[in-house]
Amino acid sequence: QVQLVESGGGVVQPGESLRLSCVGSGFTFSTYSIHWVRQAPGKGPEWVAVVSYDGTRTYYAESLKGRFTISRDNSKNMLFLHMSNLTVEDTALYYCARENLAYYFGSGSSFWGQGTLVTVAS
Amino acid sequence: VMTQSPAILSVSPGETATLSCRASQSVGGNLAWYQQKPGQAPRLLIYSASTRATGVPARFSGSGSGTEFTLTISSLQSEDFAVYYCEQYNNWPPLFTFGPGTTVDLK
Known about the structure:
The complex is a heterodimer of chains A (122) and B (107).
Chain A: E1 3-7, E2 10-12, E3 18-25, E4 34-39, E5 45-51, E6 58-60, E7 68-73, E8 78-83, E9 92-99, E10 109-112, E11 116-120
Parallel strand pairs in A: 2-11
Antiparallel strand pairs in A: 1-3, 3-8, 4-5, 4-9, 5-6, 7-8, 9-10, 9-11
Chain B: E1 2-5, E2 8-11, E3 17-23, E4 31-36, E5 43-47, E6 51-52, E7 60-65, E8 68-73, E9 82-90, E10 95-98, E11 102-106
Parallel strand pairs in B: 2-11
Antiparallel strand pairs in B: 1-3, 3-8, 4-5, 4-9, 5-6, 7-8, 9-10, 9-11
């Protein structure tokens, strides 16, 4: 069955960097675009970024552009999110989420991981 | 910018719930609906405004285009009490935005 498992979250201080990872299984990883979506405690989901199935195209939420970098390694079925200059407002549960349809943007995210918690605090 | 109404919808089991989502500019049919329960990731219900995702019961239906969208839950069941989010997709540049959510709770 389709599985996405995130890792790399933790407690960091403001201004620090962190890299999140997501490993996919149970599907042909290299044919699906994958998103990072975050959810702050008690808030709704916030879209962070998406990378195309082949890794050649990346898009970011305007407010995060320049600080966050999404990438993938299809040979290892891995997705990454590098986050820099973190602030307390970046505290959230970070999910990776797979597009519903292969080779597609905008078909909804039909599979989600369990999330990895990032806490930014001094 | 996405808005959802109402913020809270109180319904009884067996009733029909109608949730609205409005976009500040046209998104065509590029809209999805999700259900989220406490401690769980969002679950995709509807994509492309009106297409049910795999395994979603037929009591969930989506409609609309442009700036106005509706999620209808017919004959509400106990497991449907949750928060519902719409998500719009902008074709270019590819950007995604979630609405603030509608909580469907027990009347």
